[in-house]
Write a structure and sequence with these properties.
By secondary structure, this protein is mainly alpha-helical. It is 45% helix and 3% strand. The longest helix is centred in the last third of the chain and has 18 residues.
Length: 181
Amino acid sequence: MQTFTGKQFFPLDPDPADVCVEDIAHHLSQTCRFVGACRKFYSVAQHSVYVAQLCGLTFRMHGLMHDAAEAYVGDISRPIKGRVHLVGANYDKDDMTVRAFRDVEDRILWAIYQGLHLGNVGHFSEVREADEVMLSTEARDLMAKPPKSWGALPAPLAMKISPWPAEQAEAEFLKLFNALR
């Protein structure tokens, strides 16, 4: 695929040398949460900034980058993400490997962490908890009344989400990234 900055990136065979934080920030600022089902456009970049802000300093970069792979593969809704499999994911006609989509995302996240010199990828409970708090807050502020319960979610934040324009989300993402570096 061609990225925002004009680089070439291979989502199914990611190379850390092809990773660029400006691409990640831009792509996520253009990607709507909930595959576009929000009442107003609300970017994955803004969501990521909020998740990072809910995390303690030790996990803040992990919070910011937790959805960074979506910059290269888009957002797939939670109910199907764990059930999607790719056949022939290595682009080799003789290798019809079946690979879970989450594995593809994990490989991309690994490349992102290596390419940006962020250390090892981690799936930390503090980041998951912050993500769930944001999910609860987003459901309240950005989504229509659900036809069915989303299940047990933590209490939403007191603040009300006001979606940022894509340009602001991109700038805030980069600003926080650079501050955490």
